[in-house]
Amino acid sequence: MQEQCIQCFHKQANKLIVKYNLPDRLAKELIFKFNRFCDKHIDNNLSTPEASRYLNKLFQKAANNRDLFRNEKKEYNRLLLGLEEKIRNNIKKSADPFQTALQYALAGNIIDFGPSKAFDVLEVLSSAISKKPAVDHSGILRDELGKAEKVLYLGDNAGEIVLDKLLLETISHPHITFAVRGGNVINDVTLQDAESVGIQHIVRVISNGYDAPSTILEKCSPAFQKVFNEADIVISKGQGNLEGLIHNTHKKIFFLLMVKCNVIAEITGVKEGDAVIFYNQFSKNNQA
After folding, report:
1. Contact indicator for 211, 187 with CB cutoff of 8 Å
2. Is residue 11 located within the same domain as residue 126?
3. Element of type H or E holding 235
4. Which of 49, 170, 187, 244 is in Cβ range 3.0-4.6 Å of 69 for a Cys bridge?
């Protein structure tokens, strides 16, 4: 984990301290515990999602709140549900509904309370159709969807899941499973969040069995691992899922995300603020 990530976590922590009006002594204790955790595990290749999970656990206990962003998740689910029909119509009347639905789903990935920077989802959505991804392997994704028997879609954040739902409708594949987090962490999607926007009426919805803001396979439930292993392709939303799966080259994975920090920009080879549809087998295909 890079030093930039630790600095970002400190900013997140400070926001939570203010949000929950925690006393100075407790705030200092929480920061101390987090720093000690990072120092203790620094030689064990501590991942950013695992550090994020630990930070959230600390604040859940300190604030006596098992869902630190409950209100924000409900707010953004309501906001996007209010826009759902309009966006659905935009997708249907576009020249390429698949590409348009993809770009809306990408735009929705801006709804993230992990990174410390503010965002304006309405502004991002207003330019969603015109903003082309900096890396665009959507053509390969379209082809692979046509060949795949089983598809796994890894959700990321509440709010954006309404746009995931519209993409799932547009794909209209008979065997897609939508996976959510195994517990509350930041504003990441849980079973309750997914069901509140109706994704279960479109596709099968399951939990990955672990409450990190990522997909860390070795920590996920055996049931989820089975679904992952049996999937012909995986559609992975967001930075957290990318961080957990970027080194997995055995599975065909399409990473869909908005790049929100320099660390992920370096990994993906694009600029902060860019959108990416990246196929992890692309270089192999080029060499073949």
Report:
1. no
2. no
3. strand 233-237
4. 187
Q: Specify the residue for token string 């073949």.
A: 288
In this structure, the number of other CB atoms found within 10 A of the CB of residue 99 comes to 20
Q: Are 110 and 245 contained in the same domain?
A: yes
- Residue-wise pLDDT for 77-116, tens only, equals 999 999 999 999 999 999 999 999 999 999 999 888 887 6
* Listed residues 14, 43, 62: the one ending a domain: 62
Clarify whether residues 15 and 83 are in a common domain.
no
Average pLDDT, 10 consecutive residues per value, the chain (288 residues): 87 96 97 94 84 97 96 96 96 97 94 79 87 94 97 97 98 97 97 97 98 97 98 97 95 96 91 94 58
Please give the C-alpha separations between residue 221 and each of 85, 141, 196, in angstroms, as whole numbers: 35, 27, 23
Q: What is the pLDDT of residues 10-54, one digit of tens each?
A: 999 999 999 999 999 999 999 999 999 999 887 667 899 999 999
The answer on 216 and 103 residing in a single domain is: yes
User: Quick one: pLDDT at residue 41?
Assistant: 83
Fill in the DSSP letter of residue 263. Answer: H
Are 56 and 120 in a shared domain?
A: no
> What crossing angle do the helices spanning 48-62 and 24-41 adopt, rounded to 10°?
150
Can you tell me the distance from the alpha carbon of 170 to that of 136, in angstroms, rounded to the nearest whole number?
18
Question: How crowded is residue 7: how many other Cβ atoms within 10 Å of its Cβ?
Answer: 11
Name residue 86's beta-bridge partners.
none
The verdict on 9 and 76 lying in the same domain is no
The domain of 278 spans: 70-287
